[in-house]
Amino acid sequence: MIKWFKSGSPWIWLTAGAVSLSLVAVLGLLLLIGYKGLSYFWPAPVYQFDVNLNGKPQVVIGELYQRTMVPVDQLADAGVDVSQFTEDSVPRYLIKTGNRGQGALDFLTVLSTQIIHQQIANNIAVVDRESNGKFYGYPVSVIEGGEPQPLSQLSVALAQANKVRSELRSLQNNEIANINWNLERLRIEKRRLELRGKLTVADGQRIDREQANYNTIYKNIENRLFALQGQLDHDALVLRDQSGANVTIPMMQVLDMWQPNNLSWLEKVQHWGHQVYKFLAEAPREANTEGGVFPAIFGTVFMVLLMSIMVTPLGVLAAVYLHEYASNNRFTNLIRIAVINLAGVPSIVYGVFGLGFFVYMVGGTIDDVFFSAQLPTPTFGTPGILWSALTLAIMTLPVVIVSTEEGLARIPSSVRNGSLALGATQAETLWRIVLPMASPAIMTGLILAVARAAGEVAPLMLVGVVKMAPTLPLDMHFPYVHLDRKFMHLGYHVYDVAFQSPNVEAARPLVYATSFLLVTVIISLNLTAIAIRNHLREKFRALEQ
Q1: Nearest-angstrom CA–CA distance, 41 and 268
Q2: Which of 136, 140, 261, 285 lies 20 to 30 angstroms, CA to CA, from 384?
Q3: Transmembrane ranges (predicted)?
Q4: Is the Cβ–Cβ distance between 242 and 99 less than 8 Å?
Q5: Do residue 319 and residue 436 come from a single domain?
Q6: Does the pTM exceed 0.85?
């Protein structure tokens, strides 16, 4: 035994066990988040419950959302009569009844003893609405043009409603947005000429004519909008709710409808894939508790890529100066200590620095010099994606500097001397020999920077991220990439849905789904950088040897 301990084998096994436990914990956490998030999109069965609430029989239709065991003592403390209970704990069910708008809440909590009868609700329909969440009811009829139609016309009515909604979004996001952009351009042009004292009568008349022309076009588009909306004014879907009353839902409010209890296994898989696609491709609605997260995905990836473009040159230049040019004295040692200490500064401090320096000082100066015609409305003197990327670049800069400097230190001096002996200058040696060989280390620093920056939330709350961004930072209007705009972020989306949602129970699955998506995006970005690093490492392996 003593010989076995002296051989070092126990420490090898201990290290291997610690690594294995860490991997199991990480994978288990990812699997839990993935299961909780992705199962939300599966068409769960809908039940009909006969319950006894406060001595009154009642019919409840909904999904079994959660089941927990409640101690009898806790129920007694809450004032519940526990004389009928024989067990120490009683099952408590959380039922998602939906139908928000008909009732105060779309969740109901009942004890198992309050359930008289439970059965699958045959032919029940789940309606996904534009607002007020899901509706559970039995389809009765379809109304087209004010006249009742058989349910067989439902698919046609849904297709027509989706087509009209698509045309409305196209008009609002393309044609109306283009008119608004041109009107704002003309307003700024006129204001700029006024500030410079160069506004002539001819210029004023020209601008007024163009504005009147765009206003006329806007009126025509507005009439088209009203005409499209009027196509579905008299179309509706009639369903019978759990109380037996008929409820009429306008077709403009109906996004989708399915009957989960009538779907085959293959149809459920297809429905699950369709719902996941909608989650990834659509914009959020209902205070971020419904809809998708595409703007947040776009904002997260775009911000990380912008940050990477900014932090890599700065970090590499700083590391090259410290290792290749600066002498080893107290000043350079002080710089290295400062760089290491900067890596431990809380992220919220970087957010305050970005707000004060980048937004107010740099952005305000840019507005005064280049965008005076837009003042007092700021252009760059307000939080935006540019300042968010710069703030995160400053925050992750120490990681890139340290990683790059370590990579430069691993390159043998004989390689540098050989290049210099062949007549190359120091700059040529750096550019053609040293930096390419150090590129794997540079990519390692970038990987660490991306891993930290993609999940940060606190600094972004001060320098650019918002709950709901009206437009993406990218469109078809010059300069096409609008770095001054605010943006959405997956990390902030998780925070907003988890802690600021008006409907906590309904939003909980979206927290898991968005968290899993954020982890997936970070892993995808890191795997891309790791693949590039491995390619560079293999490319220069022979030269290092």
Answers
A1: 10
A2: 285
A3: 12-35, 293-322, 334-360, 380-402, 441-466, 510-532
A4: yes
A5: yes
A6: yes
